[in-house]
Amino acid sequence: MRIVADTNVLVSAAIKPNGRFAIHLRQGTFQLLVSDAVLDEMIDVLNRPRLRRKYNLTPQYIHLYLHLIRLRPTTSRRPRPSLLAVMRKISNF
Predict the structure, then answer these.
(1) Which residues are bridge partners to 3 per DSSP?
(2) Chain mean position to CA 49
(3) Per the confidence metrics, is the pTM higher than 0.85?
(4) Is residue 42 a contact partner of residue 11, using CB atoms and an 8 Å limit?
(5) Which element (helix H / strand E) includes 2?
(6) Residue 23 to residues 8, 29, 66: CA-CA distances in angstroms?
(7) What DSSP string runs through 34-74?
(8) What is the tens place of the pLDDT at every residue in 76-87?
(9) Which residues, in sequence order, are bridge partners of residue 2?
(10) 10-residue block means of pLDDT along the chain (93 residues)?
(11) What burial letters (b/e) apply to 25-62, b meaning 16+ CB within 10 Å?
């Protein structure tokens, strides 16, 4: 099964490691699809001082969580097309 996750889902899994999504993420029961932009936003959110204090998020924990997410396989092994290539393809339609 393939899952597309947004920032909210990934942040929730980070602060609730015993939640359903977090457990399935660790077990690798699905194929996680996530963009670099979502990962960047997730890192930004997890590093907010208020959130770090409230949920005791250490830099090491955030690093390990990001590493876990990046270990999940993606559906495509092809390199991503460049923005210019996509724009060219769209303009031909």
Answers:
(1) 32
(2) 20
(3) no
(4) yes
(5) strand 2-4
(6) 16, 9, 15
(7) --HHHHHHHHHHHT-HHHHHHHT--HHHHHHHHHHHHHS--
(8) 444 445 555 555
(9) 31
(10) 91 93 88 89 94 94 88 51 54 48
(11) beeeeeebebeeebeebbbeebeeeeeeeeeebeeeeb
For residues 46 and 52, the answer to whether their CB atoms sit within 8 Å is: yes
3-state SS, residue 26: helix
Residue 17 contacts residue 25 (beta carbons within 8 Å): no
* Cβ–Cβ under 8 Å, residues 66 and 43: yes
Quote the tokens at residue 72: 């999940």
- ∠3-87-4 over CA atoms, to 5°? 5
